[in-house]
Amino acid sequence: MSVLTPDIAARLTANARTRIDAVRRGLREPDPRPVVRFFNPVGAATWLATELDPDGILFGLADLGFGCPELGSFSLAELEAVRLPFGLGIERDLLFEAQHPLSVYAAAARAAGSVVLGERRLAAAERRLSGRA
Q1: How far is CA 88 from CA 2, 40, 80, 98, 113, in A?
Q2: By C-alpha distance, which of 117, 34, 23 is closest to 71?
Q3: I want to staple 37 with a disulfide (CB 3.0 to 4.6 A). Which of 4, 84, 90, 96 is the partner?
Q4: 34-73 pLDDT tens trace
C-alpha cells in the first residue's frame, strides 16, 4: 500500500518539474514547503519531502535519528518496504502542514540535531514572535 495519495504525489511531482525547469532556464532553484512528512512510529526517523521523480525517488530532509539531519534523496519504495515491530511500517503524518520552506526546516533541524526538535524550536519561536508565548 502506498504512503502517498494521488494528490500528494502530484504536488511532489509538480515541485520536481518546477525545479528542473528553473535549472534549465538558469534561474534560482525554488525553495518549496515540504509536501509530506513521514515518520517511524517506534523510532526517531523523520523525513520531510518536497519532490518526487518518475523513478520513485523523493527529495527532502532526512533524519534517521543519529543527530545529523541532511538534505538528500531517498527511495519511496524503500520507505514503503520497511517492516517494524508489531507489524508497523513507516507512516505518513496525516496532520502535517508545512509552515516554512524546506531550507528553514533544514537549518532548524541541523541546529537542533533532529527534525522533530527543530520543528519544536520553530513553533516556540513563532509563538514568541506572535505574543502567544
Answers
A1: 14, 9, 11, 25, 25
A2: 34
A3: 96
A4: 999 999 999 999 999 999 999 999 999 999 999 999 999 9
